[in-house]
Fold this protein.
Amino acid sequence: TIMRSHSFSGLQGIGIATGELVVGEFGCSLRSDYTVIGRAANLASRLCSVAQGGEVLVAEATYRLVHQALGTLPVLCTPMESPPLKGIGRVPVFKITCTE
């Protein structure tokens, strides 16, 4: 598999969260950015910041939505102790690991 055949050292970790978001171009005529705003975006960003290179961390809401589908893939979903996440606190987190 890709995860086993390639080295992920030096890569950023991945954080995935599910929820309502506001997506669009924000700002004024002098400066604007296309961005995403919402708790899920903040949570995914915080999970990304604590994930190690090549590591995939998912929030509990995301895990609940996809856990049956993940059962058909060669992956292991392990609950892990969440570090304190800035502006959020501790939340249930699952680590996705390739088993092949």
User: Anything to note?
Assistant: The helical segments are 2-5, 39-50, 60-70. The longest strand covers residues 22-27. The two ends are 7 Å apart (CA to CA). Residues 29 and 35 are 16 Å apart (CA to CA).
